[in-house]
Amino acid sequence: MSKFKQALNQFFFPPATAKLWVRLIPFVVVAFLTVVLLGFASFAWEESNSPSFCGLTCHTMPPEYATYQASPHTNVTCEDCHMGRDRLPVMIGRKIGYSWQTGTAMLTGSYEYPIVAKNMRPARDACENCHKPEKFSTDTLVEIKHYAEDEANTPSSVFMVVKTGGGTQREGLGYGIHWHIENPVYFYATDRERQDIPYVVVENPDGSKTEYIDVESGFDPASIQSKDLQKMDCITCHNRTAHEIPEPSRAVDQLLARGLISTNIPAIKKNATAVLSANYPSQEEALKAIEGLKELYRSQYANFMVENESLLDQTIEQLKQTYLQTNFPEQKVNWQTHPNNAGHTTSPGCFRCHDGKHLNPQQEAIRLECNLCHSIPVVSSPDQITASLQLNKGFEPESHKNPNWITLHRTIFDQTCAGCHSTEDAGGTSNTSFCSNSACHGTSWTFAGFDAPKLRAVLEEQARLFATPTPKAEEEPASYGTGTETQITPTPAMASSEPDTYATLQDLLKTKCGACHGSNAMKGLSVLDYNSLMKGSTSGAVILPGDPENSLLVKVQKGQHPGKFSTDELERIQRWIQSGAPEK
Predict the structure, then answer these.
(1) What is d(CA 69, CA 52) in angstroms, rounded to the nearest whole number?
(2) Nearest Cα residue to 406 out of 378, 467, 365
(3) Residue 26 region by backbone torsions, left for phi larger than 0, else alpha for psi between -120 and 50, else beta
(4) Nearest 5 degrees, angle CA 174-CA 178-CA 184?
(5) What are 402-414's pLDDT values in tens digits?
(6) SS3 (DSSP) at 143
(7) Burial of 464 (0-12, 13-18, 19+ CB in 10 A)
């Protein structure tokens, strides 16, 4: 050993009289070993951060790895999301901390199924390295394809415009899905999955705060401290963006839409959904049950199977693949185990806060407003050539500005609604009018608070503010809409060239304004008789004889308002007011 040490010492520290190349060799060897060491360290670092290492090394990870490979983030590494990006010394510290938690749990077995990530980095360290909130400035048209559970697997499409705009002052409106990211919102959750949120507080631009409490929860804000609150960020909603597991019906819809399952197979939507929805003790049992579809079709659709057995074979293979990618009995993972917060149908999602039950001290809700985050959905059937989306721009009635409007509107529905919307089969699912939208009324919104007892008591008083008497049959005004949705009564023509009076304008006023300002007298204004018109509304006089420019009726008609007069009609109204607004 002493001779070995002496040889090493002589190699690395040759005498000054040694030749130059002898003295340089130690430096070359050290440099080479350093490069090898750094190369190995770099390889080990990259490999330990790779999706294959994270997904395949540990037996708890198959569900996450399988769903990751089918996600929009399949080219983003696991560490980019779970640890974020920063300088190398910072990342090494995070890696040690993260590996210690996950590694010791795997080695000691101190974990429980299903696996839930507990130590994610905040979105500002992860998501916002690629996705800048300031860039969410435009809206997106979305088509969602559905297939009915009938013999024909009848297709339909739901179209909507998703409002991905942010909430900064530069955008003007301050609304949109990503408003939550650019405005400080804090919440308190009572469970690990953050599905039960009884308390929300919003920081306003002026520095004040607005608290919202779930009226059904009995929650006392004094029971928590500020450190208990969580700040809302990307992952609050997009918690499954890289590991989504679609529920069975949606998964089958996607297979049908992509042509991986043929719509020519009778009732395949119903049968495929049923076989994927069942609980099985193991994947082997599940695959065996999926194979059983062949016997089902042989017994129930024998004639179809004579020439189309290959179609069913292809379908069975697709369903097997889908099951293996979405159900993991060993790890106790399926579409029900990890709620997806970017929605509100199969889990609370948006309705965790926007359920209509979270009220501030003024009894105003966190808006449960369908078109706050997306346009009103439009259902289109295969026999339709076009689908028309209604986009709300400009005018909005005072009633609709009430934060509780969606919860209130069904209780105060009356003839005034026809001033802007078609109302045939109101509350139905026939899709024959704005008010018979099956995308709205054809679903039981389990997680919204529409029927919450305490909320209903709170809203009774608010409903009285907007309720109007039912119009008498003989006085029911004509309904108005966009011109394509409702039957519009033609505007009465001017009878003669004589100067107008209220008597000659009465039919015009009733036709254009009567839906809201007839027997209903919205905002206290009725145009059905001269005295009521001249009395004005709750905002004051609407007609100032001799002064058309300052008359509220003219001002409103020149702005955004339903029941608009044509240019010629408005000129008649102005001339009448200019002449003193005579009755006869």
Answers:
(1) 10
(2) 365
(3) alpha
(4) 75
(5) 888 888 888 877 7
(6) strand
(7) exposed
Cα 39 to the center of its chain, rounded Å: 46
304: its two tokens:
């179809």
Can you tell me which residue has the tokens 């254009």? 512
The residue with tokens 């199969």 is 346
Q: What is residue 186's DSSP assignment? A: E
Neighbour-count burial of 419, counting CB atoms closer than 10 A to its CB (0-12 exposed, 13-18 middle, 19+ buried):
buried
**Token output for 515:** 């839906």
- Tell me which H or E stretch contains 211: strand 209-214
Cα distance between residue 486 and residue 534, in whole Å: 30
What DSSP line would sit under 235-288, residue for residue? HHH-TTTTS----HHHHHHHHHHTTSS-TTSTTHHHHHHHHHHS--SSHHHHHH
What are the structure tokens assigned to 150, written together? 């009938």
Helix (H, G, I), strand (E, B) or coil at 177: coil
**Whether the Cβ atoms of residue 340 and residue 117 lie closer than 8 Å to each other:** no
Buried b (16+ CB within 10 A) or exposed e, 345-366: ebbbbbbbbbbbbbbbeeeebb
Bridge partners, residue 211, by sequence: 201
Would you state the structure tokens that stand for residue 198, as one six-digit string?
Answer: 């009884």
Distance CA 137, CA 315 (A): 41
Give the closest residue to 505 by CA, choosing from 476, 530, 540, 469: 530
Give the C-alpha separation, 326 to 67, whole Å.
7
For 49, residues 6+ apart whose C-beta sits below 8 A from its C-beta are 77, 78, 79, 95
* pLDDT 10s digits, 238-291: 999 999 999 999 999 999 999 999 999 999 999 999 999 999 988 999 999 999
pLDDT in tens, 496-507: 467 889 999 988
